Amino acid sequence: MEETSSILLMGFTGSLLAGLCTSIGAIPALVYGRPEERTETLMLGFAAGVMLAASIFSLILPGLDAAGAVFESENARALLAVCGILI
């Protein structure tokens, strides 16, 4: 019972922290209003690049592990992982 309540407390704390960080991140938008179109485009491009990089980097190691079940050669594993990411 104690372990379950500890897990729930950690989940609640993590969710609360994420919500607080989101609120803090929204403060500049509330203070300064809508940015100029050029600034907004720059920020959206940066955010898209960060998300793309995060998704690609989180796929590299699992892709190499999955390719290891198919090929023994490290070069073949890397080639299969790269092809999978590009597709």
What is the H/E string?
HHH
Shape: flat
Give a short account of the largest sheet.
Answer: none
Number of domains: 2
How many alpha or pi helices?
Answer: 3
Distance between the termini: 46 Å
Percent range for helical residues?
Answer: over 70%
- Overall number of strands: 0
The radius of gyration is 21 Å
Quickly give the structural class.
mainly alpha
Strand content: under 5%
The chain-level mean pLDDT equals: 88
- Give start-end ranges of low-pLDDT stretches: none
Descriptive account of the structure:
- The structure is a single chain.
- The chain has helices at residues 2-32, 37-68, 74-86.
- It has two domains: 1-33; 35-87.
- The protein has three helices and no strands.
- The protein has 87 residues and is mainly α.
- It is flat.
- The protein starts with a helix and ends with a helix.
- Helices cover 87% and strands 0% of the residues.
- The mean pLDDT is 88.
- Helix 2 (37-68) packs antiparallel against helix 3.
